[in-house]
Hints:
Blueprint: H1 3-6, E1 13-14, E2 22-30, H2 32-35, E3 44-56, E4 60-74, E5 81-97, E6 101-104, E7 107-111, E8 117-118, H3 120-129, H4 138-142, H5 148-155, H6 175-187
Parallel strand pairs: 5-7
Antiparallel strand pairs: 1-8, 2-3, 3-4, 4-5, 6-7
Organism: Thermaurantimonas aggregans
Protein name: DNA-binding protein
GO molecular function: DNA binding
Amino acid sequence: xxxxxxxxxxxxxxxxxxxxxxxxxxxxxxxxxxxxxxxxxxxxxxxxxxxxxxxxxxxxxxxxxxxxxxxxxxxxxxxxxxxxxxxxxxxxxxxxxxxxxxxxxxxxxxxxxxxxxxxxxxxxxxxxxxxxxxxxxxxxxxxxxxxxxxxxxxxxxxxxxxxxxxxxxxxxxxxxxxxxxxxxxxxx
Length: 188
């Protein structure tokens, strides 16, 4: 990434040195221009907002990220695009120590001499993880949506699969089990 390409990141810098102990709030708009700085997405037309609450304590920072809004995705069944409402949240605890330790399980360590943290990657991950793995068009879910794919799926729908195996309750019971049951009942 060139210096010119990195300028957009400055918007997500939080200079925590000099801030008072207590809660501070930030809000960011996430659109396609924001997501273009990251790897290819399987969504488009993002209209998201990220609210960040930072609690500054004397020896650590606690961040709460909340992402919500809409993205356009393709239905996994009908392949039709639709707007998907998403919301997600995530917590991050930042401690201070002699060296940088990358975030793991929501905890990271910054060197004591650090004075700024960039939130862009954490916001990105919160947003991407809020998008469900399975995306079903609301019309497909309630049965009102029709296109070639859903019509074909309805034609080939199988109500009951015949395996050729009899259900267990139709097999005769082994008489040895009956004798054990009788013994158990006598002991109780």
